[in-house]
Predict the structure.
Amino acid sequence: MPRAVAGRGDILPAIAEVFREHGYEGASLALIGQRTGLGKGSLYHFFPGGKDEMAAAVLAEIDAWFEAHMFGPLRDHAEPDVAIVAMLDATDSYFRSGGRVCLIGVFALGDARDRFGSAVQSYFARWVEALAEALQRGGREPSAARALAEEAVAAIQGGLVLARALQDTEAFTRTLGRIAITLTGRPRSAAGMASA
Amino acid sequence: MPRAVAGRGDILPAIAEVFREHGYEGASLALIGQRTGLGKGSLYHFFPGGKDEMAAAVLAEIDAWFEAHMFGPLRDHAEPDVAIVAMLDATDSYFRSGGRVCLIGVFALGDARDRFGSAVQSYFARWVEALAEALQRGGREPSAARALAEEAVAAIQGGLVLARALQDTEAFTRTLGRIAITLTGRPRSAAGMASA
DNA sequence: GTCTATAAAGCGATAGAC
DNA sequence: GTCTATCGCTTTATAGAC
């Protein structure tokens, strides 16, 4: 019989979802065990450092995902406009059109910011910087690019707060639509919105 | 000797600050007792319903403050442009230029949204509606007013997330500056920024 | 109105059998 | 690798003295 779980990677998404929905303090080991289907023994086998190490691993995985799928393309893609549109589609998809919240934003607002301060800071700083670079390569002035990038990242986070508060995911969809116009000068394509 | 505490009103601000900084789950009665200088006995004397009643009272107080100082003026002020500028100044002041976080935003992102869903929803819905009404009275089309209002409220929340994540309150100040231009067509006045 | 003592439950974490 | 049992601590909440 193959082992039930090959490594941390198999259960990280489930753990991430618990932290995302309940925050660091609210994510009890009982909940995590329930969601992953593992007992505490197994959890501590994979994460000897306990809850702290689980959260750090989740943050690292999310960070790597954004680096690979959003920050990297924004910095490197030959056509910055294409990368920006792709970023908006990826954002819509990742946050399930507002049905999912940003775990790192949740951590930023609570006690977890003190625990994982540099990871939280780095994530947002690199998002803003990568987007600013794309905007600059697309022809914007450096200072305007930076301001637009900061505005867009803040708007995404605020859109998630609003969508969850109003229990209306369309508030997030509308936010993404406004950002698209601000950044690209055009509405989001129906194709991008449908596939997301 | 006068009683140490006349009523709930005296200690609500201290309790609010604990919820704001630690979230609902993180705000333990031990912390609240420490911050208010009261033992559990006194806390349960004022709030027989315990932590849940404390949070509800804090939400109600915050809601009343925003209703009186921001939503009301936005709806009623004879000059909507003046009310909008005043709202931005009040926002800057209330959130300590980004040094303070929005308790209702924190609740919205976490488990507390399920507990206090209607209060959270109502707060944000009325903020957007009141601002939209002011913009409409100022001459905007209804649909444009509503979109701008939603954009501004989301930007404020996102600016708070960003400022706290980056540990840089100026990220919030810059956000408010951009909102001012979007809503009023003019930068925030130096007077308003200084007095905030 | 404020306190201490205490109850009952849940928490993160550990130990050790299998 | 997975489990159960358990430890020690903190949690919310209550009881009752003053």
